[in-house]
Structures are given as C-alpha cells and as structure tokens.
Amino acid sequence: MFSVNRIFTINRPISRTDLLTQMAKSLHEDGFVKESFLQGVLDREAEYPTGIDMETHSIAIPHTEFEHVNKTGFAVAINHAGVEFHRSDEPDSVVKPTVVVLMAIDPSCEKVAVIQSLFALLSDIEQVNKIARNSPQENAKLFTEAISTR
C-alpha cells in the first residue's frame, strides 16, 4: 500500500492542485485508482477541505469516493515547500501541512481503521518531525507498519 515510488519530498513551491496531481498520478500509474480519481479528489477538496490543524503542526488527508478506486493505496508528500490546504474545520483558513497523505480506499477496506491509525501516527509531533527527516524508504516502512486497513 505504501511504496517509495509514491512518497514525495516537496522542496520547491508548487500549487496544491499540482501536488495532488503528482500524487494521484503515482497512484494511477501503479493501478490503485481510475482515471477519474484526480478530478474526484480535486472536487472533494474544493467542497470539503482536508487540512487539519493539530495545534503543534498540521496535516492533510485528501481522498475521494470509492467509485474512483481500484484497490487501497496511498501516496505521501513531505511538504517542505509550504503548500497550503484549506482547513476542514475552518474552510476560510489555511494550513501548511508537514505531511499530506492522499488516500485511495476501496470498499473492502475499513476506512475508520485507516483514519484512526493515520491520526495515531500523525498526531505525534515527534513522529511527524521524524517523517519529515526520513528517507522515502524509511517512510514507506514506517507507514506500512503503522497504518491498519482492518
């Protein structure tokens, strides 16, 4: 579900749309999502933003409906460039999430378990700081071990 091919370190300024496009493209190339996935993510992000302020840091967990997904998979971006996401609780405000996790969840996967395990990992500022420093290989291993789909 997590692969070094779908873990990105963003060091140069790009738009949120460009970031999500890059992440969604990697999921599509690996067969996890349908061609419609990116537009589904962009549409959902416009209506229901996914930036989350965690007090000490912020994260974003963009996603879309099952109909755009072939099988469960993830793309992760370490956002050193400060790409902004609108907040889920205050859509007029923005955050610059340290970590962005693009989720492609199929109907056989337990979405609540995924979100709970993501929050358990990403609510810890020390873990987020570690993720921000890790290599893609280290992060693929860390996320694979930490995220539950059941």
Description:
By secondary structure, this protein is α/β, with parallel strands linked by helices. It has one domain: Mannitol-specific EII, Chain A. It contains five helices and seven strands.
**Global shape:** globular
CATH superfamily: Mannitol-specific EII, Chain A
Q: Architecture in CATH?
A: 3-Layer(aba) Sandwich
Give the mean pLDDT: 97
Computed CA radius of gyration, to the nearest angstrom: 14 Å
End-to-end Cα distance: 13 Å
Order of helices and strands: EHHEEEEEEHHH
* CATH fold naming: Mannitol-specific EII, Chain A
**Beta-sheet strand percentage?**
15-25%
CATH class category label: Alpha Beta
Number of helices: 5
Number of domains: 1
Protein name: PTS system galactitol-specific IIA component
Pfam families: PTS_EIIA_2
Domain PTS EIIA type-2: 1-150
Which characteristics define this entry?
single chain, 150 residues, alpha/beta, Mannitol-specific EII, Chain A, 5-stranded mixed β-sheet, two-stranded antiparallel ribbon, 5 helices, 7 strands, 18% strand
